[in-house]
Amino acid sequence: MIELPFAEQLAQWQSRAESELARRLPPESQLPQRLHAAMRYAVLGGGKRVRPVLSYATGLALNLEASSLDGAACAIEFIHAYSLIHDDLPAMDDDDLRRGKPTCHKAFDEATAILAGDALQVLAFEVLADDAMVSADANTRLQLIQILAAASGTQGMAGGQALDLAAAGRALTLDEVVQMHAWKTGALIRASVMMAAACAKPTPAVLQALDKFADAIGLAFQIQDDLLDIEGDPRVTGKAVGADQARAKPTYPAVSGIDAARARVQALHAQAVSQLQILGEAAQPLREVSEWLVFRRQ
Fold first, then answer.
1. Which domains does the chain have, with CATH numbers?
2. Is residue 76 helix, strand or coil?
């Protein structure tokens, strides 16, 4: 297998994810056209494709072909896209800008945005159940569904968003902030890695190392996101900065301080990379993905 420079490999993974997502989304010409247009608007044409990239990088480290992960990568990105649509709604974060363009409810309307999110959530599990590019083994399909469902539910993304909403204006301990981040953001980051691992069926030791790797970069990713809300450039990030402070959200840097937050990102990155030693040189793509995620500027 020829090893590509990371920037080139990353661009290939992102391009692959974009085309595979587009292929699985209903066409705008199909009834109900406005709903399908909103789904495609929310999913396509932007985003770093962090979760598919993690799945592809994990698969590469475990000697899987990218084609065997297309279905799983799309399923997790559909869940992520649905969560962003709903998070942006006036009842939640009330955001006007996402990925440098109007949020789904601004481009369409609130009711259509809600339905688009609902439909994307269902589409994710339809892909895992029926897609030809997902493993033909029924037990593997079931495991993928279980991993994604758990990561999306009350002990995962949805539960984390509930904690986030309840925390506005309150003082949280650092442990409480970490718990919120682990569910809201970290759960889907972890699922991206573990779904790829489920397709490869590595040894228990490798599986445990990948689990610890994913937990560490999931928290680092969210802390960096919190830092970018303070220090980021909207022209680069594609969204307004200062939103967390305006809503009195107890983010990691708000509770620990900016310097401590930066130091924690560094420590978590080192912790994540140390878990990959068991895979040797095969894990180099994952090491580079970790660095890209936790030290990004957008």
1. 6-294 (1.10.600.10)
2. helix
Residue 101 DSSP code: E
For the segment 153-171, what is each residue's pLDDT rounded down to a tens digit?
999 999 999 998 888 778 8
CA distance 38 to 245: 30
Q: What three-state secondary structure class fits 98?
A: strand
Helices (H), the chain: 6-24, 33-43, 50-61, 70-87, 104-107, 110-130, 138-152, 157-167, 174-181, 187-200, 204-231, 234-237, 243-246, 252-256, 258-274, 284-294
Q: Residue 102 in 3-state DSSP?
A: strand
Positive/negative CA dihedral, 278, 280, 286, 292: positive
Characterize 165-181 residue by residue with b for buried, 16 or more Cβ atoms within 10 angstroms of its Cβ, and e for exposed. Answer: eebeeeebeeeebbbbb
Q: Any idea what the Cα angle at residue 79 is, between residues 201 and 23, rounded to 5°?
A: 85
Q: How many CB atoms lie within 10 A of CB 100?
A: 14
Convert the pLDDT of each residue in 268-288 to its tens digit: 999 999 999 999 999 998 999
Q: How many CA atoms lie within 13 A of 152 on its CB side?
A: 23
